[in-house]
What we know:
The structure holds 2 protein chains of 2 kinds.
Chain A: H1 31-41, E1 50-54, E2 64-68, H2 73-98, H3 123-132, E3 150-157, E4 166-177, H4 192-204, H5 219-232, E5 236-240, H6 243-254, E6 260-264, H7 269-278, E7 281-285, H8 290-303, E8 315-320, E9 322-323, E10 328-329, H9 332-342, E11 345-349, H10 364-368, E12 377-381, E13 391-395, H11 397-406, H12 408-412, H13 418-432, H14 439-461, E14 467-468, E15 473-477, H15 481-493, E16 496-497, E17 499-501, E18 512-516, H16 523-540
Parallel strand pairs in A: 4-16, 6-7, 6-8, 8-11, 11-12
Antiparallel strand pairs in A: 1-2, 2-14, 3-4, 5-13, 9-10, 12-13, 15-18, 17-18
Helix pairs in contact in A: 2-3, 4-13, 5-13, 6-7, 8-9, 13-14, 14-16, 15-16
Chain B: H1 2-20, H2 28-63
Amino acid sequence: MTESPATKPANGEVCVKNGLKPERNGFVKSLDRCHERQHKHHWHPDEDEIHAASYHGSLYSRPFIESFEETPMLVAVLTYMGYGILTIFGYLRDFLRHWKIERCHIAREKEEQKDFVPLYQDFENFYTRNLYMRIRDNWNRPICSVPGAKMDLMERASHDYNWTFEYTGRVVQDVINLGSYNYLGFAENTGPCADSAAEVTMKYGVGIASTRQEIGNLDRHEEMEKLVAKFLGVESAMAFGMGFATNSMNIPALAGKGCLILSDELNHASLVLGARLSGSTIRVFKHNNMQSLEKLLKEAIVHGQPRTHRPWKKVLIVVEGIYSMEGSIVRLPEVIALKKRYRAYLYLDEAHSIGALGPRGRGVVDYFGLDPCDVDVMMGTFTKSFGAAGGYIAGKRELIEYLRSHSHSAVYATSMSPPVVEQIITSMKCIMGEDGTTIGCDRVRQLAENTVYFRKRLREMGFIIYGNNDSPVVPMMLYMPAKIGAFGREMLKRNIGVVVVGFPATPIIESRARFCISAAHTNDMLDRALSVISEVGDLLQLKYSRHRIQPSLARPFDDNVYEDIDD
Amino acid sequence: MALGDCWKQLSWFYYQYLLVTALYMLEPWERTVFNSLLVSVAAMAIYTGYVFMPQHIMAILHYFEMVQ
């Protein structure tokens, strides 16, 4: 059962099975009515942000606090105005390029093809030519050192407004790195991980020259897979060379025609691609919204397949552990309760949450204190917390044996390179504590402290931060297009490297700067980063939040709010 | 240094204007085009207001029967 001592209700409520509350006369309420009751009871009067401090007493053992403050109206209007002005000037420049008044630097059709269907007239290309190119110097910056807590950048200059770049020859030293997915600080070139990887390179070389199924299966791969299974607490695991390919090549092996895939609105491109390649019917539920998911599940069970009304062969719910653009954590206890009730399967993509969440670093399942056997397919990547590359899928032994022969990635893709495998083995042993030190444990704790501190300070300063309080991915809203470029450049001038994200990856007015906290960041680095962010925030007027939280005032948690729930 | 402070403040306001209208991302000649358009439209509006304001005010007062 999923009940652990942590999830048992503290206030002596009736014992709950499967997350459902039995009513007094023995009938079981559905989860959505249970939610309505809960929300009505803790509604705060000053809300126009969706500040869901959900505490469904029996499902969650700790408060689940996430917030997505609404865009202020004036900021939204000004952002649209800014995009409007840029669009008008974009049309003007396109007109000048078309009539050859101005030289065209970007791809266009050949003379003979001018009468064919146009290739570059859609909005994506218009956006790239006229908006992205103007602030292109904030992306693809060449790094010339290991991307740890501090890194070195090659300095670039452009004389024709970002169409071409030249290197000035100087190197910008010791830039604080707030953009790398280096959650536990394993991206380093010294230490036990790097040494063991070097040793293995001496022994096995770097290339494998075969696929996993043919003759590319090393003993290091077998050891790594056993270690991954032990780390996650499941029966067996399998690793692949590329995280994106893990999703896009394995979902087609698991679902096919006649199956239903229920995927979250904001799932990653690899999950969407894998779902589309599989040929199943895809239905999308609102982001992290359990009522929407339950409605879809009910409809699927009641109506079956679209025309024939036969039951679905299988229903697969695809969610992620941490959504990297929003910083939100999936409501896993509720998803598992729903999955059990409606007999669906769960595919959990822990790309960002493995190693970064949970008291022992075992991911979102550990964070909520749940049983890993409840999740049917656990997927994750080694890129983020382990400092390596690649992905894995873990679950029951039969599932993994099936994937070994039926997955496209196993059959056609080259297997992982030995130094990468060794990096995974050493870093995983470090996190589990099997190398005899407490480094792993310290790093997990350091990351949790850094995250809470950074988010709290940013919120106090008045920035709009999205996501859950415990997620190490911190998106800070910028909104206006000019501020995207200005923020990236001003931070680099002050020696801090950040990642700014704009249109295709986010909705058009919700552009943001995304910080990734690492266990390798010391308190000094975080303080320096915070003071610089505050300075740049004042310069660019980024402090949009209308809910200034006083530093000393912690919200008191009211236990007696739930006493008047009557079943 | 009141003039220096004033100049700094004005310069900051101009920077905010550039950020909000997204002129920050445009090339200098595009900024000139936009600024001249904006200034000419604003100048025309002020001139029209200046020329027609007395007539409008007299019409309003006449409507409210405060003056013949």
